[in-house]
């Protein structure tokens, strides 16, 4: 029974990785929009915001990579030790995942509002 539960946890972790990959694509699209929008802007305040968004996109791509790596390590640990209880680590990763997704959605919404002005 424990092995079956562990497989469900691994399956959920695989879904997280798949979802994080879509966010990587989204961040890269936002970066391209930023660069296209920035080419037509010379306002000093806007340039400061452009630099801020550029930095945020870069940081969030690193965060995405780091979380994906942590999830992969967790999945490998689950496979190597199928009879161990991995629920605490799973819950920790789920909290990190939810926090990052919330952060990314917030960043996307703020950026979209910024370039719409």
Structure description:
This protein has 117 residues and is mainly alpha-helical. It has one domain (2-116). It is built from three helices and no strands. The chain starts with a helix and ends with a helix. The model has no long low-confidence stretch (mean pLDDT 92).
Describe this structure in a few short sentences.
This protein has 117 residues and is mostly helical. It is built from three helices and no strands. The mean pLDDT is 92.
Strand portion, in percent? under 5%
Give the overall average pLDDT. 92
How would a textbook summarize the main sheet?
none
Tally of separate helices:
3
How large is the radius of gyration? 18 Å
| Gross geometry | elongated
Say how many strands there are.
Answer: 0
Distance between the termini: 55 Å
Please state the structural category. mainly alpha
What is the total number of structural domains?
Answer: 1
Estimate percent helicity. Answer: over 70%
- Return the string of H and E elements: HHH
As residue ranges, the low-confidence spans are none
């Amino acid at each position: 029974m424990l092995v079956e539960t562990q497989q469900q946890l691994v399956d959920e972790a695989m879904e997280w990785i798949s979802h994080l990959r879509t966010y990587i694509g989204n961040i890269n699209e936002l970066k391209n929009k930023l660069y296209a929008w920035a080419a037509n802007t010379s306002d000093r305040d806007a340039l400061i915001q452009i630099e801020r968004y550029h930095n945020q996109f870069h940081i969030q791509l690193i965060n995405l990579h780091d979380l994906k790596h942590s999830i992969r390590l967790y999945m490998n640990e689950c496979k190597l030790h199928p009879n161990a209880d991995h629920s605490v680590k799973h819950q920790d990763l789920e909290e990190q995942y939810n926090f990052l997704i919330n952060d990314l959605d917030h960043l996307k919404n703020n950026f979209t509002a910024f370039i719409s002005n």
